[in-house]
Amino acid sequence: MPQTGESVNRKFSLNTERCDFFRYFRYFAQQIDDYAAGKFPERDTFVLGKTPDIFQKVGLSALPMTMDQIHVDYALNGTKDADHLMGADLLKKLPSLLEKPVAIIESATHPNNSVMAIVERKVNGNQLMAAVRVGGRGKQNGATIDSNHVVSVQGRQNAVSKLLVQAMEKENAGETGMYYINKTEAQDLCARAGLQLPGSAAQDGLIHSIFDAGSPVNRKKVLPRAVQAHAEKRRLASSEHLL
Known about the structure:
Structural class: alpha+beta
Shape: globular
Number of helices: 8
Number of strands: 9
Low-confidence stretches: 1-25, 223-229
Distance between the termini: 51 Å
């Protein structure tokens, strides 16, 4: 993708709901190939695609999902450590893996601005997870864009399963620790790690939004239009329930 010479101070939001949005970006797999061949623009971020529907139901804005070159390099070349080394084939599948996560839970390190997605793959024998910053930033053609930004992708031994168990324990205690879960896959994941997923009255699927009371995510990190859209959905759902 050639540079356009636009000012680096320019900022705009990209609407991923428009059908022509992705015409302006190569598929993520092609971006990875370009990066490996030294053809990817030096300061651009990678665009995985639109923020997956399940993340939008959790409360994230309908923005591009991005990833910076440092973390792509970690995943592609293992420049940080073996737990980050995904290799090209698995890295190219990251967008589809995020479409159907095992669970989306509270971030253990940055709960005020991020969520953690657990996906059904392993890296270096360890369960793969991706931390997503809510309302982050990216660069395209010298311009700053609003995005939901993947800030870390790595395998983390049994730590991921332990975090999943802890998130469910918080739910059982009446606190917010989990936003979405596929219970069947989550139970299998914990069983393979020698852990037992605690029982819960929470139903399979969507559990919480980042807008719910008790969620640690700072709502100021979410674009105003997303807040308004979420409120309207809640209002319509409430109206239908009363009919």
